[in-house]
Amino acid sequence: MAHATPFEVHVQKEDFKFNASHFVAFRGYRERIHGHNYKVGVRLIGERIQDDGYLLDFGDVKKAVRKLCKSWNEYFICPLLSDVIRIEEVDLSGAPHMQLTCEDNSLFVFPKSDCLCLPISHATTEEMSVYIWWKVRDMLKDNDVDLSKRGIRTMEITVQEAV
Ligand code: ZN
Fold first, then answer.
1. Closest alpha carbon to 135 in 98, 127, 121
2. Distance 120 CA to ligand 1 centre (A)
3. Dihedral Cα 66, 72, 77, 82, nearest 10 deg
4. Is the pTM of this model over 0.85?
């Protein structure tokens, strides 16, 4: 039976976390490289409870976020769309590396396999959470979980920098 009021579910788990290094750079400013433990949270708002009694199979969401966190753990976050960092893939010592040249002429070189190259402009929690939103949606789709078909009208992703 359809329920009239929206339902809200917040999923935050101990293992929804990853650690990564980054620095945020924009015109005239660059942070020094440093690291964080990032915590990810998911909030779902649904219009109705499904016939099976659930808003959504949380297992699917947990699986997707857990998988993403695991695959993002212990990398340098490389913001490929930065407008202030020149990012090039270079072949050094026989292996691919990411070379980042900043406005202040500082140069960072990392093995490509140590980099998490994301299509974002700044390695901020805001831009990362938007990107994670798309990733989680795609992962759910790949598992045949269609959020809109299950009456989910809102999925909110939060990313926190924990100490
Ligand atoms: Zn930071």
1. 127
2. 15
3. -60
4. yes
